[in-house]
Amino acid sequence: HYDVLIVGAGHGGAQAALVLRQQGFEGTIAVVGDEPEIPYERPPLSKEYLAGDKSFERILIRPASFWSERAIPMLTGKRVTAVDPVAKTVTIAGDETIGYGHLIWATGGSPRMVPVEGSDLKGVHVVRTRADADAMMEALDGTTHVVVVGGGYIGLEAAAVLSKFGKQVTVLEALPRVLARVAGEPLSRFYEAEHRAHGVDVRLEAKLDCFVGANGQVTGVRMADGEILPAEMVIVGIGIIPAVGPLIAAGATGGNGVDVDQLCRTSLPDIYAIGDCAAHENGFCGGQRIRLESVQNANDQAAVVAKAIAGEAHPYHAVPWFWSNQYDLKLQTVGLSTDHDDLVVRGDTANRSFSVIYLKGGKVIALDCVNATKDYVQGRKLVTEGLSPDKARLADTNVPLKELAA
Ligand code: FAD
């Protein structure tokens, strides 16, 4: 039995444990995780770690000693398969049960696979865990052609790393532009052009038929029109399915993730959910119920729960932010752009340093800043305060954003 049991040893789980101790919580805490590793950062798996620029030790969220010094056992390699909200226990695969006072569900999600023939062939990869990244890295030597399915951030980051390694990379995007779900058209077109300039074959409105192989190993991707793209490696990056099965089975309300309130409480007593799997009403998109897949969201929701358990309840209202590194391009985003009805491009995309500023009803709701950290830092206030500056001034790089936020 633990006073606080955290399921999921990822970003949210680690942060919840850490903040509980920072808050002076002296009860027992344990973190159960199904991966063999103690918590590590996931973003480098498609960036510096995949590129070989950072070792695994350098992407650990904290070294092992940190957790032991704070009496936070990391029960790794254990998968929770059921939750009993009445007895207040969880079942670990293999029949072990652990009791809890408060349960924090921080399980993220598992990568979606394209439902086509050949998806079980060797050489078809997803990128969610260290094991996934290691499997890709081990296969690099025998790989000349890579097909990336999905032109979202993870797919594009992997494409950038692998093209830098000299692989011939094709990106297949089903929609008419890359990053279509998360960014406006100018940003999509910019990244599309950047990848093409680096030799990546970006195919939009791509219609995939299946993966083909020989002796159990993928050899190519067949398109709907019959064309076969050679591929010794396929990377599928088309999103995740939130890992909430045991909670939903226990009666928690949810569908796409598990529903939580402003304090990240699920509909079950003393059970909270945070991070990628938590469907919450977000104040930065008009209060719509959404899931956010970002380190910011996992960490900030973890802090909300940890503080609430430690006796300090503050509703979740943190400004969303995110980043993506591709080639020498550092993208930083703040706010949520999906609902925008207007946008301004600040700076010249040809200079590879610019920002896309998103508006709704005249108010700034989000910024995507490419090699433009100053805009990112100064533009934050425009988003948090929902300011409505003049569009011509927003576009004018001679006017610092902090002047418009003053
Ligand atoms: P996770 O960190 O995924 O942790 C969940 C853990 O729970 C996992 O270890 C999982 O295996 C485990 N688990 C699941 N089910 C069970 C169970 N039943 N029992 C026990 N354990 C279980 N975000 C950014 O902000 N910026 C980026 O640049 C960025 N890049 C990314 C690149 C990649 C390749 C990936 C995969 C993600 C990236 N993200 C990025 C997203 C970010 O990593 C996630 O939003 C974040 O990890 C969410 O934290 P979490 O705690 O919700 O889930």
Q: How would you describe the overall organization of this protein?
A:
With 406 residues, the protein is of the alpha/beta class. Helix content is 23%, strand content 30%. The chain has helices at 11-22, 64-69, 130-139, 153-164, 185-197, 245-249, 295-309, 373-384, 391-395, 401-404, and strands at residues 2-7, 29-32, 74-75, 80-84, 89-92, 96-105, 109-111, 124-126, 145-149, 168-172, 201-203, 208-214, 217-223, 228-230, 233-236, 240-242, 254-255, 257-259, 271-273, 278-282, 288-290, 321-326, 329-335, 342-346, 354-360, 363-370. Strands 1, 2, 3, 4, 5, 6 and 19 form a 7-stranded mixed β-sheet that branches. Strands 8-15-9-10-11 form a 5-stranded parallel β-sheet. Strands 22-23-26-25-24 form a 5-stranded antiparallel β-sheet. Helix 1 (11-22) runs parallel beside helix 7. The model has no long low-confidence stretch (mean pLDDT 97). InterPro entries: FAD-oxidoreductase/Apoptosis, FAD/NAD-bd_sf, FAD/NAD-binding_dom, FAD/NAD-linked_Rdtase_dimer_sf, Reductase_C. It comes from Sphingobium boeckii. Pfam families: Pyr_redox_2, Reductase_C. One of its GO terms (molecular function) is ferredoxin-NAD+ reductase activity.
